[in-house]
Protein 1
Amino acid sequence: MLRSLISSATTGPTQEWAGRILLANSGYISQQRGRRRTLTPVPWLPPIKEHIPKNSFDLSQKTKNLLDDVIKKETLAASALARNDSQETNVAIIDIPHSSRRVGLVVRKIGMLPQWTNDGNRILCTVLEVDENHVVSVTSPDSWYKASAVGKRKAFNRHGPMWRVTVGAGNDDPTKYTLAYRRQFARAGVPTKEKLGCFLVTEDALPHAGQPLDARHFAVGQHVTATGKTIDWGFQGGMHRWGMRGQPTRRTTKSHRRIGSVGSVGDARIWPGKRMPGHMGYEWRTVSGLEIVRINNDKQVIYVKGSVPGDIGETLLLKDCLQDEKRLKSGPVPTWAPTLETIQEESELSPEEIVVPKNLLFNETFSSKLFRFTSPSIVFTDADAKRATGRDKTKAKIAKVKK
């Protein structure tokens, strides 16, 4: 019956009309994530991008410039309103209970960059950007349980009731998106976002809709969990996809990279889960226990030790690590806010009034393990100078010949 209702709704005038019907029935857009790899969105979700017909009229350049100015002013007003609300929010650094779950961040993978420790060891880090994160909506466990099938599995689990907090990242042009997609951002009072991510949050660490999220939500030395889609390799053979050895290269014709026989006796069928050539990658993976070694507060960039799933430019979900030995003991709840630290508004200052230290380009926080290039690499003391007056032990010792 559900399929018939969906098919009848999608066969209307447009797909946006069907999306509006689903939006009116549910009250919000349920952009759920598939448990398996899906290359196309599910048919019952309303469309996100606006479909512009070919015979649509073109706007004049004057009208386009006016629309751009209006969009910029609305974005600045929404960001200022969210910033003022965050300053009034009661935020404190407290001891986080074992059962508490904080909200996470929606980040973008920039690439990988090496860092050096004080001992001279080289560690490879992943650079993640926090691009204009805002809380879009907060759904209670009861509403989530009634509205979606995912909520029936996650709203009330073994850890207790969980709220679904939707976080948006990356401000984008609202004219590209449908009315149904823009309404959720208008209700929260935030600009239209390009990416969305959902997190399970307990009631004691619940943010409000429109709350801006900062990179300082995490601290240097903290361990986090990164979830994202792996690199999409497309259709690959059995040797690349599963690491098979292949067949002999000599006295074979076009079969030295094939998987060979798949079984023709017994039931004479291919059982589900058989390792065969097919689509490789683009699946949800989670890497836990990654240490944060550096945070750039000005550029909203987080340096994480190790690698995370996904290619450069992919979107990931970053949240607190739940391992007992790497769990966050104390931190800002529900999230970091400007009230925790006195920040000078450089936007109100002229370029001549902004003074940047010569040895520091950005406001950054480093781990005590990392070597900072603003500090001297070799330090000589008086003891080292006295020790240097002796014999040079780096050279061979030459015996003296008695005459």
Protein 2
Amino acid sequence: MPDNLLPAVVLGIDTPIGLAIIRDLGRRGVPVYGIARSAEALGLRSRYLKRGLLRAGDGTAGVVAQLRQLYEEIGEACLFAISETDINALNAERAHLQGYRLLFASAEAMAMVLDKTATYAVAERVGIHVPRTLQPASLEHATAEVGKLRYPVVLKWADPNGVAPPLRQAGLLLDKVHYCADAAALLAYLRPYQAAGLYPLVQEYCAGYGLGQFILMRDGQPHYLFQHRRLHEWPPEGGVSTVCQSLPLSQHMEQMRRSVALLRALRWEGVAMVEYRHDPVTGQSALMEVNGRFWGSLPLACHAGAAFPWLLYQLHGLHRPVWQTPYRAGLRCRFMLPETRRLLRVLGRRGGAAEFASYLIDFARPGTRYYVHDWRDPGPLWADVTQMLWRALHNLPGMRRHRIDF
């Protein structure tokens, strides 16, 4: 093992986030063990994965038992967790994870950033602009307030993980983000939630583009900074980043100072993304949320040279110092499946031809990278394409009624 590097265990290698962690650590000689939910997981096809495992059943207890067994085989290791659900579950089992160096935030810190109302209160104290937000206590309360809002509005949950179980019990779906164009649409959307007595936050829409500031914290100090701009999202009205571009640290310097102040006030340790909507006309950035985990556009940071998995592994795993080394600004990264869905959505709109041309040009642009495709590690791309083709074939008329074995 080069330079006495500890093994790394990554829980959640089904997405481009887990894949990016495997690649970033594996290329530097770290033995990486990955745990996937599905046999089709992207990370299982990476050449940089030392060993892949399928997630044990029986919920959290099964995963903890699996991790304990793996520890008996490989010894002390650094443990990465991708999803908020897994982070919360593992935080409740810290006493049973001895031998692992846990590279995710504590339960107390996660609770603060998952509660958007609490996060917004801290943000306002450090001088960050927060969009006007209504938390309905009842449908009657919402009815009295909807006329005071500026439309469109964005609906999101203050604590998505916390409300998911009671919503399921009431037969309601959890929409992470929903848009309403007027008061009538808002009240119609809120009405079914009377069954659970729970309502999402209603937030005034903020013009501009998505700005993500990524920070590695330890002991109240930032140890690495990176930022990007969202160019495209799915859905187009706002959602997952499908094309994003790295920005130099010379831009949005004051906002970055406030982002660090926010994480310091939250007593944050480790990696986090502070997400804004930035209006270039007014120059104002409005806080959307703090992602207290590795974020969806992590592949862009890694391609640009901002190696957050490796930096976190060194700083919090091995307790070695890290430095703010330069990264490449102006690099683009594409998440091709949702980006293609976005293209199909906007083709019929004004400017659709220009969107199609830009979609094609990006394939030839030297500064373009991809969430999944990497010529040095082609296995995940082929697995992704194969799954896509199989799903398309399975959905053809008549195919759903017949099983085809190859």
Protein 3
Amino acid sequence: MVDKNEQEIQLLEEELMIKAITEDNMEELRNQLLELHPYDQAKFFSKLSKVERTQIYHYFSPEEMALIFENIEIDETEYEEFLSEMHPSFVATMLSSMYADDAVDLLNELDKEQVASYLTIMEDGAAREIKDLLHYEEYTAGSIMTTEYIAIKEYQTVRSAMQILKAEAPRAESIYYVYVIDEDKRLAGVISLRDLIVTEDDTFISEIMYDRVMSVSVSEDQEEVARKMKDYNFLALPVVDFQNHLLGIITVDDIIDVMAEEASDDYSKLAGVSDMDGIDKGPLAAAKKRLPWLVILLFLGMLTASIIGRFEATLDQVAILAVFIPLIAGMAGNTGTQALAVAVRGIATGDVDKESRAKLILREAGTGVITGTSCGFLVIMVVYVWKGDIYLGILVGISILITLIVATLAGALVPLLMHKLNIDPAVASGPFITTINDLISILIYFGLATAFMHYLVQ
């Protein structure tokens, strides 16, 4: 968390840079902005107006702007707006100067015609590299990997490997691991930078490389890649094709972005929002993202209301039953959401696999029985003391018992079923599972009330 003094310093720096832009003082602006960390440069740039950004394009080179766009965090719709403010050749040079994976991430936010236009006027080598990465399916290892890595041959010496490292390091995204390939460019091993530094110059690479190297397939899901990198504490992972040819690497900074993206995506779905929106979005944009789920939930709610209507005769005879509808439905929704959160988290972290699904279901069933029995017994006593009707208390208590068991199982089973069908389990969102459990709980409650009506009507 940024302390108050640091915030004041940042605000003062921003004010001075804005003043430099206003006064058209290029030298002062460059001195101040280039002293900042690239992330802070990008943060400042994203706050500027269109007129102020236009000044920046005149003051900074495409290579300097590349560093800003590698670190910028803006809405996907703003990329097109920002790039349209620059001359196409300026954009093309900037993209060529960016790491290939970052350039691909940016281009994925544009329409195909714009991408083709920029690639046409880019330098051939950079354009070819970016085109190769654009072909990979989104959210796979291929879509987030970079081709700026260092590879050496196993028959080389440490001396020659260090010469290659020094020559290629400026363009490589990560040099902490140096990958070893054979004559057919297949991944043969890996060496850490530390091992290269401390080993004698005349030692052959094959003698010191680690040949049991962990890699990921180019088509592997980015979430699985993130899990592997977290489990093994790697700074980078090599990406290979089905014949084990080295295609690129995925660095830890890319994985941090993936984890943030996946967490935001899962949270959005759990909240019943198609895509989490920032506070800077207008009400119309926010409503467009939320309406689809709300419309679905509206019709499910109407179905629940129609079910209550079918038990109108039961309510006419025992009107007091209506008092406990919110209690039954609320308890079902709450316990279902709890079970849902546990199941989705277990699937996301890899804790829940084929072997442990039955264990999870049995645990949640047991949890439902224990919580249902406890809450049901408590409700029986409260209703009896409150209304003086033991039969009504037993009805509500048994309804809660059965409802909590069913709702807990539904909260666990629905995401497991979706995961088995290769559907994102987070789609079983909190609002969705809550509405479904409302429907189930009402059926259970009024079904029992109708069946044992003669005990309630005296």
